[in-house]
Inverse folding.
């Protein structure tokens, strides 16, 4: 008969402290992804709408791959891919996670931006042109403010999803909160760490939705 | 003095020859009304003159500078700096206003003068206020376009065009998106501008108004100018059968 393993008693305080440590890494991944993906998405949207056909097709392919394959798989490709292809081309877990998340989310943001840009009536461009605005002024002063207002609800959706998606980084053993919860759960044979992590995600998203609502109100100063 | 001279302008969309061969001349202080059935090319003519469409061939000249001209069968536009200057000669009022919804009335008017023409902001605000007073909507300076009636929005868009101090102002069916009551407001403003000797080219379906306000009427159909002349000639005593048929529908 095998001896029973000795399982240490679980302390909620320890669980909380450990999860908090993981949460810091979750937050780091979250903010860096937004920092890169939000502007990158705009660039991708422009490429997707380019008049230069090859660029448009390449961008279409990129978006379709990003949306058509699991983010978990993309994380593994970015992390294991380089060393698999070239000897010695290793990549750290954290940058790999940031890159994978950024290029994935940029694809989604790009499609949201594109929808927003294409919804602006042609007359806005024409009025700007006749008033002497150049292309950059037209985009920055006339088009972009209207686009941002229109796409904000859709962006909020993606940002909330991103908070939860960071848990996928556990697949490349980046020790964000979900990895920590998994480890604690295995160690103490308890579900408490999972429940705790769920609470963390919920509170984080509650804050996200409050912040985004604030931005929506701020941009909603005019009616459509 | 001739402000606008168009020669042999041609434009087609695919097989559709929208402008077949248009030549016209607008003198300083003149009010020209362009009338004609839908699809006759009136709007396209205005859009070519304001760079919103690129004609296939022909010349467009403002004062003494070519906006575009056809040399040896090739369409050539003025160079960048010159183009900017030529474009400052004209303003355009759209059928559906095209105000910027995220800017207040005041900002709609001063944004181009301040950000594009680099005018002093205080001065631009003063000019804008004067224009709004003239349009009878001085109290709407801080409102957003969505809170205005169609007639008020159109008056803002006229003020916005005037703020850049154009030499010639184009109107593309300025009352077509308005109900008859609001139409009156706009026609009154245009009459006032005519009285101040503003040079204007107005595409319109308002025959009575065209007769009252214009000193020159152009009747277009099928991409050509069928008949032109004083209101008395064109509307009062049309020579072409086509013009007669068109006008009879309005007198109905």
């Amino acid at each position: 008969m095998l001896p029973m393993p000795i399982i240490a008693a679980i302390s909620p305080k320890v669980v909380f402290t450990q999860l908090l440590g993981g949460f810091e890494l979750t937050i780091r991944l979250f903010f860096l992804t937004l920092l890169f993906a939000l502007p990158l998405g705009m660039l991708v949207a422009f490429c997707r709408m380019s008049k230069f056909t090859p660029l448009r097709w390449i961008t279409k392919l990129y978006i379709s791959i990003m949306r058509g394959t699991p983010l978990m798989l993309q994380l593994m490709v970015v992390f294991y891919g380089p060393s698999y292809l070239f000897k010695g081309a290793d990549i750290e877990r954290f940058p790999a996670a940031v890159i994978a998340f950024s290029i994935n989310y940029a694809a989604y943001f790009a499609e949201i931006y594109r929808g927003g840009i294409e919804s602006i009536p042609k007359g806005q461009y024409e009025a700007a042109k006749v008033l002497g605005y150049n292309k950059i002024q037209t985009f920055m002063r006339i088009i972009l403010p209207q686009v941002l207002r229109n796409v904000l609800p859709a962006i909020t959706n993606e940002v909330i999803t991103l908070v939860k998606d960071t848990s996928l980084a556990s697949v490349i053993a980046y020790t964000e909160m979900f990895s920590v919860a998994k480890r604690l759960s295995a160690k103490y044979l308890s579900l408490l760490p999972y429940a705790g992590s769920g609470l963390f995600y919920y509170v984080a998203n509650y804050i996200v939705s409050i912040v985004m609502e604030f931005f929506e109100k701020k941009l909603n100063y005019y009616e459509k | 003095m001739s402000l606008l001279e168009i020669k042999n302008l041609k434009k087609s969309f695919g097989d559709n020859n929208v402008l077949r061969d248009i030549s016209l001349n607008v003198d300083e202080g003149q009010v020209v009304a362009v009338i004609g059935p839908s699809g006759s090319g009136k709007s396209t003519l205005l859009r070519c003159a304001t760079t919103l469409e690129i004609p296939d061939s022909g010349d467009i000249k403002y004062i003494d500078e070519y906006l575009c001209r056809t040399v040896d069968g090739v369409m050539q536009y003025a160079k960048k700096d010159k183009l900017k200057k030529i474009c400052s000669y004209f303003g355009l009022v759209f059928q559906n206003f095209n105000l910027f919804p995220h800017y207040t009335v005041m900002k709609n008017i001063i944004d181009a003068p301040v950000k594009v023409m680099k005018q002093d902001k205080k001065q631009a605000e003063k000019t804008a206020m004067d224009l709004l007073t003239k349009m009878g909507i001085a109290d709407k300076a801080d409102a957003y376009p969505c809170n205005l009636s169609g007639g008020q929005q159109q008056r803002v868009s006229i003020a916005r065009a005037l703020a850049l101090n154009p030499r010639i102002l184009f109107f593309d069916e300025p009352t077509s998106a308005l109900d008859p009551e609001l139409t009156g407001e706009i026609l009154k403003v245009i009459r006032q501008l005519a009285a101040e000797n503003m040079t204007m080219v107005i595409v319109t379906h308002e025959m009575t108004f065209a007769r009252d306000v214009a000193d020159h009427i152009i009747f277009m159909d099928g991409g050509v100018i069928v008949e032109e002349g004083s209101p008395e000639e064109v509307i009062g005593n049309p020579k072409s059968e086509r013009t007669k048929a068109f006008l009879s529908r309005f007198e109905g």
